[in-house]
Structure formats: C-alpha cells, structure tokens
Design a protein that fits this description.
- By secondary structure, this protein is an alpha+beta fold.
- It has one domain (3-166).
- It contains five helices and seven strands; from the N terminus they run H-E-H-H-E-E-E-E-E-E-H-H.
- It is globular, with a radius of gyration of 21 Å.
- The protein starts with a helix and ends with a helix.
C-alpha cells in the first residue's frame, strides 16, 4: 500500500469517528423561526447552552448552536452540533436519520437574496434566510394538504367497521 493510500484511509477513519457535523439528539427542537441577525443568533446561543448538552463528551466545546432546516424542507430545527463546511451553494440542513448537519441536496440557495456562497460554515446559516423561507413555504403546503380530504379514507374504514360490528 502506498503512503498516499495509507494517509487517505487514516483520514477517512478519523473523520468518520470524529463525526464532523454530528448532532446531539437530545438538543434537537422544532422552532417557528431561526435567528435572522448576528445579535439574535448570539441570544439563541446563550439560551440554548450547548455545552450543557455536551458536558459528557470529551470535547463539549465542539458542539455549537445551529438553527437550520430539516431534511424534509418543512421545518426549522435548532440543535447543538459540530460545525460543518457546506459546499455547492446549498442550504444547511439537519438529517435526523443520520443525526448530522449537512448540505442539502434538495435546497440550493444560490438564487436567494443573499445567496449562499459556494463554501461556508454551517454556523453561518442564519445569514441565508432564503433557506428558512423554503421550509416555511413547504410547511404551508403540507398544512394545506392535511385537511378533511385526508380523513375521508379513515372515516370510510371506521364506518365500515361499525357496520360490521352492528351486524
């Protein structure tokens, strides 16, 4: 094995173990709004107190306040997670299934105002409000779908069950 392959394998192993972008599940909370300024971001950092969630870990200072969209693009969440470099002009999202901060494959914010740069730190996501507008827009669409129209199959089944029980 060449030295380059050996170094690459060590890098892959060390980054997998360190879990860059890893979140603390117990710190995840759905929120109506994420901070939209540096001042509000600082207030949220003080309120969330991420080191108190991470005190059992060897490096609690690595777990930093984030407020990002979820991977379904329908909710904003705040959590304590390791910072991550986001590439490709995508929004920063939290994947609950992977329990990590990552760049969204579904939400690009290069056309938002201000646009996401090609490379930025996940802790700077508050600067790119277009990402939060995407989640609010999708939240509204989902709320619009969850009307009485979705209850028709359920009501039909319930009525059918009652008819069977009565007979």
């Amino acid at each position: 094995m060449t030295l380059a392959r050996s170094q690459l394998r060590k890098f892959k192993t060390s980054t997998a173990k360190s879990g860059f972008g890893s979140g603390l599940k117990e710190s995840v909370k759905n929120v109506e709004n994420c901070p939209d300024s540096k001042e509000k971001w600082r207030e949220a950092v003080e309120r969330k107190k991420c080191p108190s969630f991470a005190f059992k870990l060897s490096k609690p200072e690595e777990f930093i306040y984030h407020c990002v969209i979820n991977s379904y693009l329908n909710q904003s969440v705040e959590l304590c997670a390791q910072q991550k470099i986001i590439f490709g002009g995508s929004c920063t999202e939290y994947s609950a299934s992977a329990n990590r901060i990552q760049g969204s494959l579904k939400a690009l914010c290069t056309n938002s105002s201000p646009p996401c740069p090609n490379v930025y730190n996940s802790t700077q996501s508050y600067k790119y409000q277009g990402c939060y507008h995407l989640s609010k827009k999708n939240q509204t669409k989902i709320a619009g779908k969850n009307t009485s129209g979705d209850l028709k199959p359920v009501l039909s089944i319930m009525i059918l069950c009652l008819l069977i029980i009565v007979d």
